[in-house]
């Protein structure tokens, strides 16, 4: 059956499908829709089903990070007049809790797809041999419509000696059979920050090595500065520092680091490399399709998620717009509509795309940072409010948290919100909803907030704006 006016392939030795989906993360939303329409679908997946988020990213990391949050709560109990001690931790139980649930989910997703009508699963790495032909497990398959949704993988920097060192990435960090006593983490972004919290809170001696002047460089400067200050109180952080050499000495990993002309050695039992992500376009041999990719290797698409090759589409991390699961899910809904309703295509609406970092403290943001608002020439007002100045923020003793708001001066349009502190990932949502609905500052300031609940700190920050 043809899709969008494209006629089916003729018969020969090669297996043909109406739709071919590479990757089993958010792309499955589209494959499921296609199968429901009676189209023949091929799903190509090398690893466990469910994509990065389920298997190596947001789901297992949050299950593990919650254990670190519980430990933080116990460690800080004395502030509230409660004497509590930790008798020990069961590392294997902590890891097994996350791994067992994730693996069961991945198996269930794969089994569901194998049993579904109109879907054929190819378990293996696919490599393009032509525009819409793919080689997988020694056989060649083709499709009229191709959806590239095969994600990214951890980037490993070119450091002398690193190849000979048993380093890990975020892929392995969530499944370590034993807790490292001393762990060096290379990186200063959200993955490095979350992993430092997880290992550090549970008793690993963490050294964070970052080439920049502060952590979380992509965040608003005020948030990044505060976050860096808080982390410097908790763990050993080496800023403006690069690893010039790595080597193994017995069971230890020795890193030669350099900072502002001086060199030193960092000795650890493990090294976690968390320096960003790279797209899997090279592994897929996307070049064989004629699809354009950008200078970093991400697939280029139009506003409808179609590439320069008609009938080849892409979504999720491999597109590189936002490396977030909720962004990939949003794109999947649009891709489904645009592929199956070619006469009524709709451009993806990325407005007010939020993000959250589940470190300690949590960080969340939406919209423009102050730096971006200045660069884009907005006439804007900016205000912030400390958690500790709100009743609930004070009662939970959050002395570092604050909410920062940016709004256009005359229209009151909300340009951005940035939160660091307890439950930032939850508090950001009301601002996201207001921005998505096209509401202005008054929608927050004129609303009624439960007193003395924590969301009051958001309303107070809005109330500080001088428009």
Describe what you observe in this structure.
This protein is of the alpha/beta class. Helix content is 31%, strand content 24%. The protein is built from 14 helices and 21 strands. Strand 4 (126-128) and strand 5 (133-136) form a beta hairpin. Helix 3 (58-75) packs antiparallel against helix 4 (91-115). The N and C termini lie far apart (58 Å). Mean pLDDT is 96; it is low at 1-11.
Rg is: 24 Å
Distance between the termini: 58 Å
Poorly predicted residue ranges: 1-11
**Annotation, overall tally of beta strands:** 21
Class from helix and strand fractions: alpha/beta
Strand proportion? 15-25%
For the largest beta-sheet, the strand count, sense and barrel status come to: 7 strands, mixed
- Helical stretch count? 14
Characteristic key phrases:
about 475 residues, alpha/beta, seven-stranded mixed sheet, 21 strands, globular
Give the helices and strands, then pairings.
Blueprint: E1 15-22, H1 27-36, E2 41-45, H2 51-55, H3 58-75, H4 91-115, E3 119-123, E4 126-128, E5 133-136, E6 139-148, E7 152-154, H5 170-173, E8 182-186, H6 190-201, E9 205-209, H7 221-234, E10 236-238, E11 242-249, E12 252-259, E13 262-268, E14 270-273, E15 277-279, H8 281-284, E16 312-314, H9 325-340, E17 355-357, E18 363-367, H10 370-375, E19 380-386, H11 391-395, E20 402-408, E21 414-420, H12 424-436, H13 442-445, H14 456-463
Parallel strand pairs: 1-2, 1-6, 2-3, 6-16, 8-9, 8-14, 9-10
Antiparallel strand pairs: 4-5, 5-6, 7-15, 11-12, 12-13, 17-18, 18-21, 19-20, 20-21
